[in-house]
Amino acid sequence: MPTAIVRTPRADQQLRSLPKSKQKRVVAFLRELQADGCAALGYRLTGADPLERLCDKHLGGALRAIAIPLRNTRRGR
Fold first, then answer.
1. How far apart are the C-alpha atoms of 49 and 64, rounded to whole Å?
2. How many CB atoms lie within 10 A of CB 30?
3. Nearest to residue 74, comparing CAs of 57, 60, 54, 59?
4. From CA 33, how far away is CA 11, in angstroms rounded?
5. Which of 8, 14, 43, 65 is least surrounded by Cβ atoms within 10 Å, i.e. has the fewest?
6. Can you tell which superkingdom this protein's organism belongs to (predicted)?
7. Helix and strand tally (H, E) in the chain?
8. pLDDT, tens digit (0-9, with 9 covering 90-100), for 19-31
């Protein structure tokens, strides 16, 4: 399901500061997220709000992406 991606200025700043190889991983993940929505994410965090709304994807090493669905898009629904 195609999904709109909204990146914060801080996210753009962090992306620009990464080495090119890691930038490529992040951009590939963003394309996957845009095409597949929450199915592209590894898992949803658990805990009290706002943790329950955060989805996480490990992109290799310590690199990870955190996404917040703007509507109820829990996996499997």
1. 20
2. 17
3. 54
4. 15
5. 8
6. Bacteria
7. 2, 3
8. 999 999 999 999 9
